[in-house]
C-alpha cells in the first residue's frame, strides 16, 4: 500500500468516526423520545426518530464526500488521467466503507446516550425500546449519499476538462 493511500484511509476512518459521534449525539438530542422531547415508549415517535437519524446521516455523507473531494490530492511527478481515476476510485471505496462505519458509530452513540441518560419504564419488555433504531437500512444513507456526491462531483468536473494543447497542435498540423 502506498504511503498516500494509507494516509487517505487513516484520515477517512478518523473523520468518519468523529463525525459519527457528533451525529449520534445530535440524533439523541433532536429525535422524538430523545433528550429534548417526546416519549420513547410511544410507537408513533419511532418513524420520526429514524427519519431524524436518516437526515443527519445524509448531511454527514454529503459533507464528508464534499470535503474529501476538495482535499488536494497527493502530488505526483507525472499526473495522468489514469492516476486521477485510481485516486477517485480509492476515495470512493474509503468513503463507502468509512461512511458505513460512521453510520454505525452514530447509531450506537445515540443508543448509548439514550441508555445512559434515560430510565426505561418498568413495563417495557426491553430497555432499548425507549431509544433505538427501528429501520436498519437507514445506516446505508451515509455511504450512498457520499457515492452520489462523488458521482455528481466527477460528472461536473469532467464536463469542464480543458482541451489539451498537444491535441490542438496535432489538429493544426493536419489542417495546415
Q: What characterizes the major β-sheet?
A: none
Distance between the termini: 48 Å
Helix run count: 5
The helix/strand series, from N terminus to C terminus, equals HHHHH
Number of strands: 0
Low-pLDDT residue spans: none
Round the mean pLDDT to the nearest integer and report it: 80
Task: Write up this protein.
With 176 residues, the protein is mostly helical. The protein has one domain. It is 68% helix and 0% strand. The protein contains five helices and no strands. Helix 1 (3-30) packs antiparallel against helix 2 (46-70), helix 1 runs parallel beside helix 3 and helix 2 packs parallel to helix 4. The radius of gyration is 22 Å and the shape is elongated. The mean pLDDT is 80. Keywords: Membrane, Transmembrane, Transmembrane helix. The chain crosses the membrane at residues 12-31, 51-69, 90-110, 139-161.
Give the SSE layout.
Elements: H1 3-30, H2 46-70, H3 81-117, H4 141-159, H5 165-175
What's the short story on this structure?
By secondary structure, the chain is an all-alpha fold.
Features:
5 helices; 176 residues; single chain; mainly alpha; elongated; 68% helix
